[in-house]
């Protein structure tokens, strides 16, 4: 699966916020609050209507570390499901296993969570799952594989994140390297700053 391998600090500066979660990007943004590039500091160009819609779509896509085709497929799935399309989209993205592992504090970033999952370090309901896009369901138990509990990168990541989950829709027991995805969160609970309405309008044009 293709993935973005370019400078993530440049993306954060483009959107003016730390969309990846790593603390190092907060430091970069505190020093350089303007977009990257030769004219970034003095850029005053007003975005067109299309540009505003595109920016929101790109912002959410990069937040969840997805390529364009992946993101588009999620939108199509959200549009076919009953309910509000924008809400469906965000809830689908939150159910991705790499996002859940990140939210539970077993990884510092979604990209690190994806790497851990690809290498087979996590179990879902007792079975190894090495697919980052696996959609977690309410009640699923996510835990570190026994053989992986002493892995240094995992332990370092857990030390850098909160002891318990700050999110109401999941519970975490770090001492036992496990957590539970209790329910699909309400959109109002999900800490994402993207404008869902603009994203839906972008794909509806």
Give a structural overview:
- The chain has 205 residues and is of the alpha+beta class.
- The chain folds into two domains: 8-82 and 193-204, Orthogonal Bundle (Ribosomal Protein S4 Delta 41, Chain A, domain 1); 96-181, Roll (Structural Genomics Hypothetical 15.5 Kd Protein In mrcA-pckA Intergenic Region, Chain A), CATH 3.10.290.
- The chain contains nine helices and five strands.
- The chain has a five-stranded antiparallel sheet with strand order 2-1-3-5-4, with no helix packed on it.
- The longest helix has 15 residues, at 49-63.
- The radius of gyration is 18 Å and the shape is globular.
- It starts with 7 loop residues before the first helix and ends with a helix.
- The mean pLDDT is 86.
Number of strands: 5
Low-confidence stretches: none
CATH topology of the largest domain: Ribosomal Protein S4 Delta 41, Chain A, domain 1
Proportion in β-strands: 5-15%
Assigned CATH superfamily of the largest domain: Ribosomal protein S4/S9, N-terminal domain
Structural class of the helix and strand makeup? alpha+beta
Largest sheet: 5 strands, antiparallel
> What is the number of helical segments per DSSP (H or I, 4+ residues)?
9
* Fraction in helix: 40-55%
Give the class-level CATH name of the largest domain: Mainly Alpha
Report the end-to-end length measured between terminal Cα atoms: 28 Å
Whole-number radius of gyration? 18 Å
Instruction: Give the rounded overall mean pLDDT.
Output: 86
Element pattern in H and E: HHHHHHHEEEHEEH
Protein name: Small ribosomal subunit protein uS4
GO molecular function, one term: rRNA binding
Function: One of the primary rRNA binding proteins, it binds directly to 16S rRNA where it nucleates assembly of the body of the 30S subunit. With S5 and S12 plays an important role in translational accuracy.
Keywords: Ribonucleoprotein, Ribosomal protein, RNA-binding, rRNA-binding
